[in-house]
Specification:
Elements: H1 3-16, H2 18-44, H3 53-85, H4 87-95, H5 100-140, H6 153-180, H7 183-188, H8 201-219, H9 224-259, H10 261-264, H11 267-277, H12 280-309, H13 311-318, E1 323-329, H14 337-344, H15 347-359, E2 363-380, E3 383-385, E4 394-401, H16 402-409, E5 419-424, E6 434-437, E7 440-447, E8 462-468, H17 471-483, E9 493-502, H18 505-512, H19 515-520, E10 527-532, H20 533-586, H21 591-606, H22 608-629, H23 636-669
Parallel strand pairs: 3-6, 4-8, 5-7
Antiparallel strand pairs: 1-9, 1-10, 2-3, 2-4, 2-9, 5-8, 6-7
Helix pairs in contact: 1-5, 2-3, 2-5, 2-6, 2-20, 3-6, 3-20, 5-6, 8-9, 9-11, 9-12, 9-22, 11-21, 12-20, 12-22, 12-23, 13-20, 20-23, 21-23
């Protein structure tokens, strides 16, 4: 046989199998287009193009990587359905005298034809839509730029190389599949799994234990850092548990239904239960995959939508005041009196900020001035130290002066030098009226049930907040911590000057730009941080807006894959069930009864994965919420609303897919 004949046979096969090749080609072209668009935008965005561009490039690069890796999975998985569907055809080729190498060459040219079509279509669609997607991204980021988005060779070539390699993997796997099967098996392979499976109780128990472990890890995360450390292990346990449960518990459930004679010997239920029983192993794996992908869609979209919609809350979590500056309080014994005065004359900073406010027509208000220590250490059994720090005992440690506390909270408490006021977000770590800081012990005069009004508990770890009598007491704590710290870390006292701004938004933005230079010109030494909600806004938009943009892409990819698996699952099962329904028609089942049985069968399995996915989301809610706190997002009601809305939209899309695939299944059943 010559190459032209192989090519003609392959081309004819692609045309004759439109019901299987066309959905595969459309979904693959869409994935290629999305990959091209992401990479094209990533390549053309320069880090210096606008504020937030660096963060955007990092997220886009992550999105390109995820898209590329997931594309491998999608193409291999959906190609498996194609090969499964056509195994009888390959078996007939063998019976007619074709050798395995001939079948392999035909399959090779089929994939080459499909690959050429998909890559060409995908890149052309990507080129046509990439500028639109870039404009959408700029709109999400609230950016205006004169940058001319164009078409360049590198994204095109890179996309071709990546998907050529993926299709090469698919061709290799198809070749292995053909060469490993015997001619008789090729004919019978499409009906594999006809033996009634046994209920595997050991796997069922293992699945329940694994799933319960995943849920336990998710529900018992104590802090955002602990949640980030547990998440991937919890997700892995849930994935394994889901597969084991679908493959074992589902079979056991069907056997229970079969033993119920009143239920089982109804003609609708008899066909449904027996049909599912005979191929439940393959069916269960597909359902578990749909469940996991559905969960991924809900998690990705609900979190990224929440972050984007709650952008202002995120910014306010990071910047309780519009402008936040602080300065290291360091004694310098070698300095002259004049230098020391300049060192601690923070009034100069306030005067400089006020003078700039007059220049830019804005008003400074809600000023907050205080000294503090901000540290991270371990709190165990009423003792704070820098020893044996872990995610289980780590706390954000903050010390403030009594004078500042009384002024902010309108109180008039007095303290002795060895007395403190304490708040701990984990009250169980301090069981007595004593608190030790390294080797220094203090008496707790008052325990606060919640943080003072001027503090926000938006932290990666638990909080330990204490109030001391005066600056001497604060210096003592600083010195004790430094004396007991073995590494290069240094605990410092800081002077904080924070305030809000009133005026036009544009004036406030211009006021904040270059504010650090203005403060530096005052001659105040040891300026540590100068930040504002206005200068950081675009960086936050670059990060969270890009996450939202990538979330839409990745969520769409998960959704496409879910739809494809559902479609091929229904198509494959339709061909397998057709013979059974033909027999049932011969013994008296009419079209109305056939449709009723099909509806019952599909409903029994179709909504099980999405129901399980919703359960996964409910158990994952708390750990994901804690992870979002690490991104300065702490608006739980908003996250609940976004999750519910995304789930409802997904249910609508899922219902549309159900309607379409049920129709496909029915048409296959009724083919002559």
């Amino acid at each position: 046989m010559n190459k032209k004949l192989y090519f003609r046979l392959a081309l004819r096969n692609v045309k004759n199998n439109k019901s299987t090749f066309l959905p595969f080609s459309i979904s693959t072209s869409a994935i290629i287009a999305m990959f091209y668009m992401l990479y094209s935008i990533y390549e053309q965005v320069n880090e210096n193009m606008f504020s937030g561009a660096e963060q955007m490039r990092i997220i886009l690069n992550l999105g390109v990587s995820i898209c590329g890796i997931f594309s491998v999975f999608v193409l291999i998985y959906t190609n498996g359905f194609l090969m499964k569907r056509r195994s009888r055809e390959f078996g007939l080729y063998s019976v007619l005298g074709m050798e395995k190498k001939h079948i392999t060459k035909i399959v090779f040219w089929e994939i080459v034809i499909v690959a050429l079509g998909c890559i060409t279509t995908g890149i052309l669609a990507g080129i046509a839509l990439s500028k639109l997607m870039f404009m959408v991204l700029l709109k999400i980021l609230n950016l205006k730029t004169d940058f001319a988005f164009g078409v360049y060779p590198k994204p095109v070539l890179f996309t071709i190389i990546v998907f050529d390699l993926i299709f090469a993997i698919v061709i290799f796997l198809n070749s292995v599949r053909v060469h490993r099967l015997k001619p008789v098996e090729l004919i019978r392979n499409e009906n594999a799994g006809e033996r009634e499976p046994k209920a595997k109780w050991l796997l069922a128990i293992l699945g329940l234990v694994t799933l319960a472990l995943g849920y336990y890890l998710a529900l018992t995360a104590k802090s955002p850092m602990d949640a980030m450390g547990r998440f991937f292990m919890a997700a892995l346990c849930v994935i394994i548990g889901t597969y084991l449960l679908f493959m074992s518990v589902s079979i056991a459930f069907l056997k229970i239904l079969k033993k119920n004679k009143k239920f089982y010997y109804d003609k609708k239920h008899f066909i449904t239960v027996s049909g599912m029983m005979y191929r439940m192993k393959q069916n269960a794996a597909g359902l578990a995959t749909i469940c996991i992908l559905s969960t991924c869609v809900l998690v990705v979209l609900s979190t990224t939508v929440s972050l984007y919609v709650g952008m202002e809350d995120v910014l306010r979590g990071r910047f309780p005041k519009d402008v936040m500056t602080n300065y290291l309080y360091l004694e310098d014994s070698d300095s002259s009196e004049e230098q020391k005065e300049n060192h601690y004359d923070y009034q100069k900073v306030q005067d400089a900020c006020q003078s700039r406010a007059d220049e830019y027509n804005v008003k400074i208000q809600d000023e907050d001035k205080y000294y503090s220590i901000d540290d991270i250490g371990a709190l165990q059994n009423g003792r704070y130290s820098m020893e044996n720090i872990s995610t289980n005992n780590m706390v954000n440690f903050k010390v403030k002066l009594l004078e500042d506390y009384n002024r902010a909270n309108s109180e008039n408490i007095t303290l002795n030098s060895n007395e403190v006021i304490v708040y701990s977000s984990d009250a169980g770590r301090i069981n007595s009226q004593k608190l030790s800081i390294c080797n220094k012990e203090y008496t707790i005069k008052k325990k606060l049930e919640k943080l003072p009004v001027d503090e926000k508990e938006l932290q990666l770890y638990d909080t330990l907040y204490i109030v001391v009598k005066d600056m001497d007491a604060m210096k003592e704590i600083r010195d004790v911590i430094n004396e007991n710290t073995k590494d290069d870390f240094v605990c410092n006292i800081k002077y904080n000057y924070e305030f809000n701004l009133a005026g036009d938004f544009k004036d406030k933005e211009e006021y904040c730009q270059g504010l650090r230079d203005v403060i530096n010109h005052t001659g105040i030494a040891h300026t540590d941080e100068v930040g504002s909600i206005y200068t950081s806004r675009q960086n936050f938009f670059g990060l969270y807006g890009s996450l939202f943009f990538i979330g839409i892409f990745i969520g769409t990819m998960f959704l496409i894959t879910t739809v494809m698996i559902i479609y091929y699952k229904q198509l494959s099962e339709g061909y397998q069930d057709r013979r059974r329904f033909e027999i049932m028609k011969k013994v008296g089942m009419d079209d109305k009864e056939t449709k009723s049985v099909i509806k019952t069968q599909i409903l029994m399995v179709f909504f099980l994965p999405i129901f399980m996915a919703v359960i996964h989301i409910c158990f994952a809610f708390d750990i994901i919420r804690k992870m979002l706190v690490s991104l300065n997002f702490n608006n739980t009601p908003l996250y609940i609303v976004c999750t519910v809305m995304v789930t409802l939209v997904f249910f609508i899309v899922y219902g549309i897919v159900y309607t379409i695939t049920a129709g496909t299944y029915y048409r296959v059943i009724n083919k002559g």
